[in-house]
Each structure stands twice: as structure tokens, then as C-alpha cells.
Amino acid sequence: MRPNRFTLRRSPAAIAAVVLAALLATAAPTAQAAGATTPVAAAAAAPDIPLANVKAHLSQFSTIAANNGGNRAHGRPGYKASVDYVKAKLDAAGYTTTVQQFTSNGATGYNLIADWPGGDPNEVLMAGAHLDSVSSGAGINDNASGSAAVLETALAVSRAGYQPDKHLRFAWWGAEELGLVGSRFYVNNLPSAERSKLSGYLNFDMIGSPNAGYFVYDDDPVIEKTFKDYFAGLGVPTEIETEGDGRSDHAPFKSAGVPVGGLFTGAGYTKSAAQAQKWGGTAGQAFDRCYHSSCDNLGNINDTALDRNSDAAAHAIWTLSADSTGEPPADDVYSNPTRVAIPDAGSAVTSSIAVTGRTGNAPAALQVGVDIKHTWRGDLVIDLLAPDGTAYRLKNPSSGDSADNVVATYTVNASDKAANGEWKLRVQDVARYDTGYIDGWKLTF
Ligand code: TRP
Ligand code: ZN
Ligand code: CA
Questions:
Q1: Any idea where the P/Homo B domain is (predicted)?
Q2: Ligand 3 centroid to residue 372 C-alpha, Å
Q3: How far apart are CA 396 and CA 383, in angstroms?
Q4: Sequence spans of domains, the chain
């Protein structure tokens, strides 16, 4: 739960709707009426992932290997240097990063997990790549390629200020080359309640093979179709991945019942004549002749394959992070239930809600739930104050309105205000005799 001076409750939209309906039953708001439904924007299209950016990460991984004995293997300094490189980029982009330690083969291993703030915490889409190489080389196709594509997609999410319905989590796994050790450790240590929130895991391991094929994992049908549709749109034929299902980090997720999928351009298998016909390249030669060898260096990359697969990764992450249930995402509700007396024909009083831990601005349809008990509500003038002091009039006084109470939900377009900060409800009683108090209020982002 986020730190907050008052209660922060994440409630399912269904519950919010019931509460809203209950409020509306007794409400007589004079501002815009609360909408019964939350408008759900169509999923935004993924941006193009710049190949130059992906390749710049490959160069950095190559340099890291060169400076650390020629590899980025588990238990070697080049691995930890790779983690530090990726983590620094993510931290600067606004991610919440976690380094998870484990032990394998007598050496400390590291998984790097990066959460993008926001989204429905009950629907988490993950994408990952193994960050370790074998000890014989720098591991540029295997698997700086997948690591760089996932990193650049995560950075694109930040650049776009993308706020998907689902929560996004990116991962870089340690010790894949020792037998999927890091990803298995992560899955085994994830509480089952957290595991059941994973709506999918997308894996990117070897996506720039020099003699590339275009392989899509034959796993979850929705994920598989998302990738296939992307390549179909490019006019690039795909095949089902057959070079060993279970040979990469999606396997532990799949075993735990998480829907998985991924992309692959081939390792030690040989490209057939038919495959060379449809994809180009060299028949009778391995997809990656440098697989697990010292020549898996910067020259061991097919730029076109790396570019297409990076764009496909971003496309899938954008598309699959749109809500699949058709319901709006869970709302974040911040409330202050403290009673505040409103002096009769007196000065204005306020009640505050401190909002923290959000990214970006408040929504265009910020919901302000007001619960004021009063014996003549016509006496009351009510404003919402944004953190910068801007006042939004929610209700004007109207001397003839003798009804009790203001129990209403108002909608305010606060999309030009930062979400974080201290929001206030300001209430003034402007006419004598009848009195009341703020019985609580809430903000739904
Ligand atoms: N990193 C994997 C490995 O070393 C490469 C690999 C082989 C792979 N077959 C695969 C990755 C199938 C994904 C799917 O074994
Ligand atoms: Zn490998
Ligand atoms: Ca009064």
C-alpha cells in the first residue's frame, strides 16, 4: 500500500460503481453530474522502437564484456556490470527497480525487476529477457538482443508517458545459461496471490540471429496471435518455435500456470531451403553459427531481425496491457473520513487529502465524492482546491434549497494539474441558523 496520510484503497471498478450508484441516489449536485461509466480510451498504438537505440545498448553490453574478461556470465563481474547498466537507465526513466539476489553454483546471481508505476495491480503484464551470457563470449545475440529490446521498450513506455490499464513489469534474468535459474527463483519466490495476478509473461531470448528465422512461441493463443498479427502486418511470414520449448525463461512461468509467449530468431538449428526462400539468408547454415561461442559479438546481429522483433515486442506489450476484462481498471481512491465542523455563517473550513506515489497529472474526470451533513444545504458553497491552489467550484449557495445534506459525486477536469500533492475540500456556510459538518470526502483517480 502506498504511504498516505489517510486511507488509500484500491477498489475494483464494480465496487466503485455500486458506491457511485448509492451516492447518486441521494445526490443533487449542481456541478456536472457524475458519469455512470468511466470512458475507456482505445489502446494507443505502440511507438516504433528505434533500432539505433537498441544497437547502442548492444554496444554497451559489448564494452562491458570487453572490460570484464570477455563475457557477462553468471558469477563474473561482467554480469553485475550489465545489471548496473540496465538499472541506471530504468531508474532515470522513473521505474521502481528491485535487484533480487540468489545463489547458484556458489556464486551470487541477480534478477533485475522494474515496475512501471500505475495500472491495475491485479492485472500484471510481464516481459523479460535473460541478461547473462555464457562464459565463452559477450553474448550479444544470446541474449543482449532480447535484453536491449526489453530495455528500449521499457524506456519507450516512459518516453510516451504510457499509462496502460494493466500494471507493467519488466525483468532481466540472471543465470539462464545455468538452467533458467534466475527466472525459476523469481517464480518460486512469488507468493501465489502475486502469481495469480500475472496476466502474461513475454520472453525475448535471441532475437537478432545473423541468419534469422521468425519464430513465435506456440503457447498462449492470445499472445501468439498478437505477435503473428504484427508480423503479418509487415508481410513477414512466421513459424512456430520448435528449437526446444522450455529452453528459456518463459518455462518456469508456464509451469506455474501463467500465460506465456515470445519471439526467437533461431540458435543452433539449420535454416532449410524453404526457410531461406521466405526469409532470405543462407540455407544449410545455422540460424546463429556463433551460438554460445566467442564470436557472438557485435557482428553477430541481423539488424533487420533485431529491428522487427523489437518493434513486435513493443507492439505486444502495448496491445496486451490494454484491459482484457472489458472493465475499467481498478480505481485508486484516496479519502479523508475525519469530521470537520462547518461554522454557521462563518469562515471556510478545509479537509485535506495527501496524494503521493502517482505519476503524471490528475484525470480529466477526477471524481470528488462529498459527504456533508447539514440541515439546510442551500447555505453551503463548496470548492475543490488543487495542490497548486486552483479552486474548482463544486456547488454554489442557493438560499431556497432547504434540503438536508450534500452527498454527491462531482466530476472535475483536473488533467492540467499534477496528481501528487495536497488536495483540499473547502466548505463555507454563508447563511445563518442551519449548521453541519464535513462527514468525509474522497478523490477517485
Ligand atoms: N538461451 C537459450 C539456450 O541457451 C536459447 C534457446 C534455444 C531458445 N532454444 C530456444 C530460446 C527456444 C527460446 C526458445 O538454450
Ligand atoms: Zn543461451
Ligand atoms: Ca447556516
A1: 326-445
A2: 13
A3: 9
A4: 5-38+330-444, 51-320
